[in-house]
Amino acid sequence: MTETPQRPRPLRVLAAMSGGVDSAVAAARAAEAGHDVTGVHLALSANPQSFRTGARGCCTIEDSRDARRAADVIGIPFYVWDLAERFREDVVEDFVAEYEAGRTPNPCLRCNEKIKFAALLDKALALGFDAVCTGHYAQVVRREDGSRELHRASDLAKDQSYVLGVLDERQLAHALFPLGDTVTTKDEIRAEAERRGLAVAKKPDSHDICFIADGDTQGFLAQRLGRAEGDIVDESGAVVGSHEGAYGFTIGQRKGLRIGTPAPDGKPRYVLDISPVTNTVTVGPAAALDVDALTAVRPRWCGTAPTGPGTYTAQLRAHGDETEVSAALVDGTLEVSFAEPVRGVAPGQAIVLYDGTRVVGSATIASTRRATADAL
């Protein structure tokens, strides 16, 4: 007698619904797959604006209403959870402190680590849910031994595994990404939303930093940290300009330097170093940005930690290309060497390691080594 394969049991799923098209379609797909889905919108701002401005920001009252309407159409219960204080402490204050220390943080990655798959997931599990569902483009693969792996999305053009590289195996065991295993364009996702009757089908995607709705990061930081005039110097230490706060610059920045003295060779200059102690910004030629090694701290592994040196590919920013690296854990820190020099690597950024499409883990860049002997 032939046994009939058993279908996976339905899960109790908490769908994080931002009010955008991706999370709405993800929730709809989870419900269509037979799961018992409840929608939740995270109120992350203590004083949310009423409306969004195009693709700027999120978490407005309008977004909450859009999420509720989508849940009504899908036919699932819906709640709004206030996580504003936790978001302020773990994401916004961390963002400000990192810039004040001369580093360049990634708040989306921190939000996934601290809010969506820590505060939200912990609360979901305490209430008896099995998984948290989001609209991220990535895949969770279950191995034969029951362990989970995080992989890139089937559609590499929309892959968001970089900002999920902070998730550990326990969190992956309770994560659901319904958009990650299908190769569909954004237009097709919008068309699916329209077929499902979801009014967010034509809503603009959210870009930039959600808690800086006007996109003026430097203005936001100035308001929080105050203006502090300092020098812009070249590699020799000669003053070539001034600034109103070293926190307003990032490694590799070219525009907005307001340098009065041109470079001797007439070529553009870039930010090479930021020193919050001396409130000094150092600029120089593009070649001085080349980095051939780095040290990263606070490694987090999407599964079992590597036991020895290995060769991987690495991604250094959310929409960056992969580059070949050698990496090893040394006394709890990650030592990474690049096969070819890379540019624009800044302390505070995350480095995410991959083995093929599998996400091995991530760490926060603490320091870099310049490729040229005469560079900083």
UniProtKB/TrEMBL annotation:
It comes from the Bacteria. Residues 219-284 form the tRNA-specific 2-thiouridylase MnmA-like central domain. Keywords: ATP-binding, Cytoplasm, Disulfide bond, Nucleotide-binding, RNA-binding, Transferase, tRNA processing, tRNA-binding. Residues 158-160 are annotated as: Interaction with tRNA. Its EC number is 2.8.1.13. The active site is at 111 (nucleophile), 210 (cysteine persulfide intermediate). It is found in: Cytoplasm. Pfam families: tRNA_Me_trans (PF03054), tRNA_Me_trans_C (PF20258), tRNA_Me_trans_M (PF20259). The record marks 136, 349 as: Interaction with tRNA. InterPro entries: MnmA-like, MnmA-like_C, MnmA-like_central, MnmA-like_central_sf, Rossmann-like_a/b/a_fold. GO terms for molecular function: tRNA-uridine 2-sulfurtransferase activity. It catalyses: S-sulfanyl-L-cysteinyl-[protein] + uridine(34) in tRNA + AH2 + ATP = 2-thiouridine(34) in tRNA + L-cysteinyl-[protein] + A + AMP + diphosphate + H(+). Residues 292-365 form the tRNA-specific 2-thiouridylase MnmA-like C-terminal domain. ATP binds at residues 16-23, 42, 135. Its main location: cytoplasm. Catalyzes the 2-thiolation of uridine at the wobble position (U34) of tRNA, leading to the formation of s(2)U34. Belongs to the MnmA/TRMU family. This is tRNA-specific 2-thiouridylase MnmA. It comes from Streptomyces andamanensis.
